[in-house]
């Protein structure tokens, strides 16, 4: 399989990052029941490490259900305001074992590092003090999205494989 050309990689990664950032933080702010749809299915790597790998303020979160529970039970109300984000293609030729992936010319068989920074308010957004945050993601292509039948069902093209969230101020 050949790597996509440079222009294709840039377009695909920046479009993916923009769509991801806009939809993920909108979900955190207003549609928390959709949070699990942003993450890859659980997987076990050699050596016992599990994916997706989620770190929230230095605490390892065991799985997506635990993350959703954290938001529903401990962080009942929050408002995220993204100030900036950037992305970088990490692996231009990523193809999970046992999958066919996208056609090579699409440039969608890649992993993308997305770095996000902004402010979050916990509690009532009109009264809470904004706190700066940094959130870093490794996005991987969703194998289910590459089949033509699934494309029609609005399946997310990119899923979170790794996340590291941190309050910085």
Put the structure in a nutshell.
The chain is α+β, with helices and mostly antiparallel strands and 169 residues long. Helices cover 24% and strands 34% of the residues. A hairpin with a 5-residue loop joins strand 1 (43-44) and strand 2 (50-51).
Low-confidence stretches: none
The number of helical elements comes to 3
Q: For the CA atoms, what is the radius of gyration? A: 16 Å
Instruction: Write the H/E string, N to C.
Output: HEEEEHEEEHE
Overall form: globular
Structural class: alpha+beta
Largest sheet: 6 strands, mixed
Annotation, overall tally of beta strands: 8
Give the proportion of residues in helices: 10-25%
C-alpha termini separation: 44 Å
Strand order of the largest sheet: 4-3-8-7-6-5
Mean pLDDT across residues = 89
Instruction: Bin the strand percentage.
Output: 25-35%
Task: Give an overview of the whole structure.
It is a single chain. By secondary structure, the chain is of the alpha+beta class. Helices cover 24% and strands 34% of the residues. The protein is built from three helices and eight strands; from the N terminus they run H-E-E-E-E-H-E-E-E-H-E. It has helices at residues 6-30, 64-74, 148-151, and strands spanning 43-44, 50-51, 53-56, 59-61, 78-91, 111-122, 131-141, 158-167. The chain has a six-stranded mixed sheet with strand order 4-3-8-7-6-5. Strands 1-2 form a two-stranded antiparallel ribbon. Strand 3 and strand 4 form a beta hairpin. The protein is globular and about 50 Å long. The model has no long low-confidence stretch (mean pLDDT 89).
């Amino acid at each position: 399989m050949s790597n996509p050309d440079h222009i294709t990689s840039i377009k695909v990664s920046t479009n993916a990052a923009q769509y991801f950032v806009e939809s993920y933080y909108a979900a955190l702010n207003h549609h928390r029941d959709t949070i699990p749809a942003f993450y890859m299915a659980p997987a076990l790597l050699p050596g016992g490490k599990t994916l997706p790998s989620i770190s929230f303020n230095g605490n390892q979160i065991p799985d997506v259900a635990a993350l959703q529970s954290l938001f529903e039970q401990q962080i009942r109300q929050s408002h995220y305001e993204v100030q900036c984000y950037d992305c970088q293609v990490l692996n231009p030729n990523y193809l999970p074992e046992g999958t066919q992936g996208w056609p090579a010319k699409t440039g969608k068989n890649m992993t993308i590092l997305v770095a996000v920074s902004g402010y979050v308010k916990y509690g009532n957004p009109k009264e809470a003090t904004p706190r700066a945050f940094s959130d870093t993601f490794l996005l991987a292509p969703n194998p289910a999205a590459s089949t033509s039948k699934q494309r029609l069902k609005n399946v997310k093209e990119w899923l979170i494989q790794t996340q590291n969230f941190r309050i910085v101020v």
